[in-house]
Target: Homoserine O-acetyltransferase
Amino acid sequence: MTLQLVEIKDTVSIGSFELECGEILPDVTLAYEKVGRVGTDQVILVCHALTGDAHAVGNESDPGWWDGLIGAGKYIDLSQYTVITMNVLGGCGGSTGPASTDPRTGKPYGSRFPKVTIRDMVRAQYEALLKLGIHRLKAVIGGSMGGMLALEFAVMYPDFMEKCIPIATAASLSAMSMAYNTIGRRAIVSDPDWQGGDYYPSKGPVRGLSIARMIGMVTYRTDLLFEERFSRQNPENAREMVDSYLHYQGRKLVNRFDANTYLRFLDAMDHHDLGRGRGGVEEAVRKIHAEVLTIGIEEDIYFPVWQQRDFHQICLKKGVKSVYHEFSSDYGHDAFLVEFNRFGPQIHRFLNGG
Model:
């Protein structure tokens, strides 16, 4: 019997939406991808990272960015589950964001698009799920910025999911990671084509965004990987190879991403704190009802592994059923997008009660 899978790429409107900052977006739409077994009520929500989008799974002809983790017979098995991924509020992958048309003016929001928080993103996705008729999740999972969303989901809507899987993330960003973000932000706003954020319909500060991406790539990988890929393979041309690689990564991003969205997301990460307004992180964790699997990467520079270890210990202290998995990878932070065999089996066992 052939397994029947559904694949939907669409948008869902949640109407008028008030942000934490008090501003109101009159008409919010979120883009989503839904892939999985026909008829199942076992739904997993995937939350994407900084430069991700809703295309996490895809299909054989157009695989998504988490195709190595999710699929029929894979670690998150589409023969068991339906997986939904949403492009978050403020994004540039089909959801309402700075490049969207403001219905009040008929022009792109640009610099007028308001500050968006991680909690805003989570609440928008929650409302979208309800619109789609989904009132309970098997799990919510995400890495990096997506992990911040996953943790917020577990605190804001504790009875909405059975399990929570935050990967390479933390309750708040470290000061060093804020420093990396500051450099990337400066690169963008210093570009003459930035124009204060009102650069549409042009592509805007592509040079600044490219440099911001180069900075990001250095923090997402490790010195061991750079040494192996460039210095050891071709020591005479190592500098040229590094330069070419980073410029290539920068060009790739500017061809698919918007600088205003990049800045809004950096700001959301910089200011995120799971314990804000809740009496601290420990009191926030006390609200979690879901079982938690926290995954850390030993060589992660952007979200150092001590943050995941600490979060796991807080969960145990506050009576949250928590499992911790840590692995080593020369890919560093980006290992959650690459080395699925290092953490996929643990996710599979966790989802299936092992």
Q: What stands out?
A: Residues 238-254 form the longest helix (17 residues). The mean pLDDT is 95.
